[in-house]
Specification:
The protein is an alpha/beta fold and 650 residues long. The radius of gyration is 27 Å and the shape is elongated. The N and C termini lie far apart (84 Å).
């Protein structure tokens, strides 16, 4: 039995910060770290388990013998056990053999392990994260410019295991994914990819949202360095990387965080606060300093070690409300008698403050589905401090509107206009995410009524409306080719659909819209600012048409006029009021032949008539194809035709 007194990585100041919940680089201290002590090579181990009776390290290096390598409990009240084990090498398997105060034996994986066995195996793996030579310096230097609110953000969300599979049905590895994904995303014009959780998780049908290895990319697809390779190559291609992050709950698996030292260490002891009834998982105790430090350290870890550009925080609403998905009597009010989770609110604010202090060029994005005010507003104004928030209301209203029979859409016109009532109350991202194509909802194509041709036309219209609506964009994999089946994590995007011209047309539509969104300042510079949007006519429910303006920051930049037509008939001689005279060019028409439409486009530049319409001095008479989105761009306006502010008002 070896009982070498440990060489410690902790200073007194480290311990002080840890106890205060202010140590935000805990991955450098806790966990396993290869090194050398007194000429002996091995690994240093440290684990937080204040209520354990005894702890030892067991693994492939000592035949899983619980007596061979005990750890020492520090005498400073930190609850940290540590020790150095000679002879341990990279790739060795290990767990913590924990004897609880009441005599039970627990075999726990390392909460700070950098690498885990491939599930269903559950051991942690000793691993050194050094050695990878990054090639994304240029990206990191320029990243501060790309994170600005006036920059375009078009996000391609994907599940890494089911984006594309090999001939034998297995998933692509991290490096194989880099070779396939990078050129595809670059060709499609997306600015970012968002990976559904890559952190180690035991249950594949959870899609990664039930995490046991918070500091490790899943070994299903390769080593940690392989995942670095993927991010590196995305960056070198000019593509940002957003990671889904899940600080809201964790699974009850025996080798995970639940009852880690025999007590409710990471979670609340009271199930009314510590157990999630929907997901059958545990809720972090946000009031415990060490747990807050664990989570914030984890967020910084992915931004620092893996060069991630942003974190999309999952299930924020479930964190904010104590009564989330609970009936009366199943939750505990806060100290003021309210339903707000004050500890979680405080944690989220601290998380955002620390992230933006340490990585001002990063982005945090909240998946938050309620009307909680100020989610994407600074904490010093009372907000939660996120950079952006998913616009769940827009997504629900839009898809519900499209499900209506076009004959009756005029009675639901408010569904497609209501989002502009609150569009600038937050920094919104418009999401058509994985949640909309699972659990029996079918594909987006399934929402579209009518013939097959009508369905494709409405898909093109949906994307035209989405990309001209204020806010950043997110599209889930497969939607860009109009996948016809519900997403199944066990399968793949049905790339064979691209043999059909209609599906190729949807892909071409998304590609062109991405290009326009990135190149036309009117579509992104003021995407969070009401000055960037102006209704021309939102009340034409009888014809099923919306018309609006998009503007850039520079008042001399060409404005865009958008017309979205939601019915299956041709609207000839449809007149639209304009902000200025001169020549106008149709730069996008979802009915174009190369998108799979009928080709009812305006080929030549249009000249505005000096005919008052919609309260404006100039107007255009255009033809709107069935189920279409059209974008018209003004040419430079002669100074003599500049209008006063009153002329611009509707």
């Amino acid at each position: 039995m070896s009982q070498t007194r440990p060489h410690s990585l902790f200073s007194d100041f480290d311990i002080y910060l840890f106890k205060q919940g202010k140590h935000y680089r805990l991955w450098e201290k806790l966990g396993s770290h290869l090194g050398e002590v007194d000429g002996q090579k091995g690994a240093y181990f440290a684990v937080w388990a204040p209520d354990a009776g005894a702890i030892s390290v067991v693994g492939s290096f000592n035949e899983w013998d619980g007596q061979a390598h005990p750890l020492w409990l520090r005498s400073d009240g930190s609850g940290i056990w540590e020790g150095f084990v000679p002879g341990v090498r990279q790739g060795d398997l290990y767990k913590y053999h924990i004897t609880t105060r009441d005599g039970r034996i627990l075999m726990k994986g390392d909460p700070f392990a950098f690498y885990w066995e491939c599930p269903p195996q559950t051991a942690s793996i000793v691993w050194d994260l050094n050695g990878y030579r990054w090639g994304d310096r240029d990206w990191l230097v320029q990243r501060s410019q790309k994170v600005q609110h006036h920059e375009p953000w078009s996000v391609y969300e994907l599940h890494p295991g089911s984006w594309k599979r090999k001939a034998d049905g297995s998933s692509l590895g991290w490096r194989e994914l880099a070779e396939e994904l990078v050129p595809y995303v670059r060709d499609m014009g997306f600015t970012h990819v968002e990976f559904m959780p890559v952190m180690e998780h035991p249950y594949e049908p959870s899609w990664g949202y039930q995490i046991t290895g918070y500091f490790a990319p899943t070994s299903r697809f390769g080593t940690p360095q392989d995942f670095m390779y993927l991010i590196d190559h995305l960056h070198q291609a000019g593509i940002g990387v957003i990671l889904d992050w899940v600080p809201s709950h964790f699974p009850a698996d025996a080798h995970g965080l639940a009852e880690f030292d025999g007590t409710h260490l990471y979670e609340h002891a009271d199930p009314r606060k510590g157990f999630h009834p929907d997901w059958k998982s545990y809720i972090f105790n946000y009031g415990r300093y060490e747990v807050r430090a664990f989570l914030i350290s984890n967020a910084l870890f992915w931004l620092d070690v893996y060069h991630a550009d942003g974190l999309r925080v999952d299930a924020v609403a479930s964190m904010l409300y104590l009564d989330y998905s609970r009936k009366e009597g199943e939750w505990v009010p806060n100290c003021y008698g309210g339903k707000e989770n004050l500890e979680a609110i405080s944690f989220l604010r601290e998380f955002n403050e620390v992230v933006y202090r340490e990585f001002p060029d990063a982005m945090t994005i909240a998946e938050e589905s309620t009307a909680w005010p100020g989610v994407s507003r600074p904490t010093w104004t009372g907000g939660l401090g996120f950079g952006q928030k998913w616009m769940m209301g827009w997504m629900h209203d839009t898809l519900n509107y499209f499900k209506n029979d076009p004959l009756f859409r005029k009675f639901h016109h408010h569904q497609i206009t209501f989002s502009l009532v609150y569009a600038f109350s937050e920094n919104f991202m418009l999401p058509l995410s994985h949640d909309e194509v699972v659990y029996g909802k079918g594909s987006l194509m399934d929402r579209m009524p009518g013939t097959l041709e009508d369905k494709f036309a409405q898909m093109r219209l949906l994307y035209g409306y989405m990309f001209t609506h204020p806010g950043t964009k997110l599209l889930f994999m497969g939607d860009e080719i109009a996948q016809t089946s519900e997403w199944d994590f066990r399968g793949s995007v049905p790339w064979e659909l691209l043999q059909d011209d209609y599906h190729k047309g949807i892909q071409a539509t998304v590609r062109v819209l991405n290009q326009l969104y990135r190149t036309r300042k009117a579509l992104h510079e003021l995407q969070f600012d009401p000055d960037g949007f102006e209704w021309i006519d939102y009340g034409d429910a009888d014809h099923g048409v919306l018309t609006y303006l998009r503007r850039a920051r520079d008042p001399q930049a060409p404005p865009l006029v958008v017309a979205c037509h939601f019915t299956p008939v041709v609207r000839e001689h449809y007149r639209i009021g304009l902000p200025q005279g001169g020549r106008w060019k149709e730069i996008f028409n979802s009915d174009a032949l190369h998108f799979g439409g009928s080709g009812m486009c305006h080929e030549s530049p249009l000249v505005a008539e000096r005919k008052e319409w919609h309260g404006r001095q100039y107007s255009l008479s255009v033809t709107l194809p069935p189920f279409s989105a059209c974008i018209f761009e003004a040419e430079a306006m002669p100074p003599s035709e500049e209008l006063s502010h009153s002329d611009k008002e509707t």
